[in-house]
Amino acid sequence: MSEEIKGIGAPDGWETSGEITIVSPSGFHARPAAILVKTAKKFTSEIKLVRGDKSQNAKSLVSVMGFALQQGDSVSIIAKGPDAAEAIKALVPIVAGNMEESAPGDSRDAPAPPAASAAKPAEKSECGQAASSGGGSVFRGITASPGVAIGRAKLIVRGEIEVSEEAGGPPGAEEASLRRAIAEAKSQLEAIEERTRKTLDAGHAAIFGAHIELLEDPELEECALAGISEGKSAAYAWKSSYKAQAERFSNLANELFAARAADLEDIGRRVLRILTGHADEADYWEDSILIALDLTPSDTATLDKRVLGFCTVKGGATSHISILARSLELPAIVGIDESVLGIKDGAPVILNADDGVLEVDPEPAEADRIRKKQSELADRRARDVRDTMKPAVTKDGRQVEVAANIGGVSDATQAASLGCDGVGLLRSEFLFLGRSEPPSEDEQAEAYIGIAKALGPDRPLVVRTMDIGGDKPIPYIKQEREDNPFLGVRGLRLSLAMPDIFETQLRAILRASEFCKLHVMFPMVSTIGEFRAASSLLRRLNDGMGSRDVKVGLMVEVPSAAILARHFADEADFLSIGTNDLTQYTMAADRGNPKLARIADGLDPAVLAMIKSTVDGARGKGCWVGVCGGIAGDPLAIPLLIGLGVDELSVSVPAIPQVRARVRELSLSECERMASHALELDSADEVRSYVKKSLGGGE
């Protein structure tokens, strides 16, 4: 057990874990809590989570989340029954290790939101909305998902579903009605979960896995059944139960915990609609921009294609609807002023989520300009997809590899169909997260081989070894609490500290080498010694497996690696720049902090200088340089990266056609001129303005 556990007493007849300290920077949230509950339900013993003099049912997601456990809090697990000791042994690592409740996928390598606009903020009018300089009103909120859309406002006003308090039949009939409604709701959620897994990925589907756990929560059900036993109707009892729990979460100070109230409302209303036969579907028009007090995760995941974007009064950048909107590439604003609900249904609007602005009744000329631009962009996207198999070669003959950042077999298949030159980043964490024990060598090898086969033997596959720690702790790896986990034991540092798990992964990766051009990449490397230790281990294992042809490299994510690139290039086959973390560390600005968005910009001249240092260090040493961070797919960054000498751009799968097309429109000589000038500028804003002007207006 973890060294954080101290022996403490327990009631007679109960087994105890001892004290466990929560180490995750974001505390113990919905998805890790769901894993705990799901695991606890496998045991017949009664199991409780204890904090101070209070205890909660460990088989109830509502109860576990209700503790609102945050980093540094201490709890213990107690159990009573025939398998109590086994239950505690299985549950302690989940609580001690914890998991991150961030956006599914790898936030470090996902495209960063665009920097805040430099435009002067609109002034507030007396009614609480921002006043427009022309045309109609302007409302401001928080960017949940970037993008611009123009259409008509569709107000989503959900009134309360009226229910009868008194039962219409005996308690047994009401209870049976409730159980049927819960079963039907579960079936619906399972369908949404499966659809989300296919259209997005398993990480996003896990949102609805947690919803299913909430739906089956014993505390919710027991509260409703108690109401039924008192003569209340199934609908009234259920509504009272989920409303009480949602209010409990709404009152929590932590935004991440409070956001779970929306999840409870989502599953609660779903059951209530089934019980009452209440329809809850909006009648969208072809260019709908939704305006709502709030939307639920299942609303967002199943939006009609006629919906072009949305803005809500409630919600934050960490809410599940924001996560889903970003993945669906749907422009969205949250936290907008409540007076937006007073606008006329069907009013023409421009949703500029890049700047967090909703403009109502825009000037006709502005609306026409946006429509024309959108039409041009749509035509261009269609043309890019049609031409995606054409080589990504500049007008003066410089070839640039355009690879994909992926997280599984389906991504690899799609990337290959879009003409990718390979995979520049396979995030292997998808095999390690969301479970209570590490994957076996065979399980990992099956996944890597499946991806390799999807790519084919002629495309390179760059597998990043597990990037755990910092923002991605996992329950079965013991990590001490760190005051600053982003500067702590994460990435390669953590892998080297647990050789058994690391060696198992490396052997599994190597087994894929006969099916593709295999490259192994180590994350968060800061010293030559770290890289040598890892590459030496890889080569020793490879020799023992028959000495296959495998390339080895590292991610350049910290300034030390960029500055010492010339030394790394002497020993590595390739360097891949993770610009999101490199920006964060170079600028000392958390890219997840909206107040620092203007500072944490990958086009800052300081970051560009780090990229140049990396490329210059590798030049002439047979070591290629790629970029797999967010700016690799930024249209304004692409000419600068080419001009700085980057060999490969690894981007999200949907962006492949656009990036390949952008490369074909540029010339190396012009890119070099732009990059040289950008390095002399003072800020990211100046760089962006300069590149836009150089590209003839740009984007």
Q: How would you describe the overall organization of this protein?
A:
With 699 residues, the chain is α/β, with parallel strands linked by helices. The model is unreliable at 1-8 and 98-135 (pLDDT under 50). It has an eight-stranded mixed beta sheet. An eight-stranded parallel beta barrel has the order 13-14-15-16-17-18-19-20, surrounded by four helices. 49% of the residues are buried. The chain starts with 14 loop residues before the first strand and ends in a 5-residue tail after the last helix. It folds into four domains: 15-97, 2-Layer Sandwich (Histidine-containing Protein, Chain: A), CATH 3.30.1340; 138-158 and 281-362, Phosphohistidine domain (Glucose Oxidase, domain 1), CATH 3.50.30; 171-276, PtsI, HPr-binding domain (Enzyme I, Chain A, domain 2, Orthogonal Bundle), CATH 1.10.274.10; 392-694, Alpha-Beta Barrel (TIM Barrel), CATH 3.20.20.60.
How many strand segments? 20
Terminal CA distance: 54 Å
Spatial sequence of strands, sheet with the most strands = 5-12-11-7-8-9-10-6
Structural class: alpha/beta
How many structural domains are formed by the residues?
A: 4
**Strand-residue proportion:** 5-15%
Mean pLDDT across every amino acid position? 83
Bulk shape: globular
CATH class of the largest domain: Alpha Beta
Residue share in helices? 40-55%
CATH superfamily heading of the largest domain? Phosphoenolpyruvate-binding domains
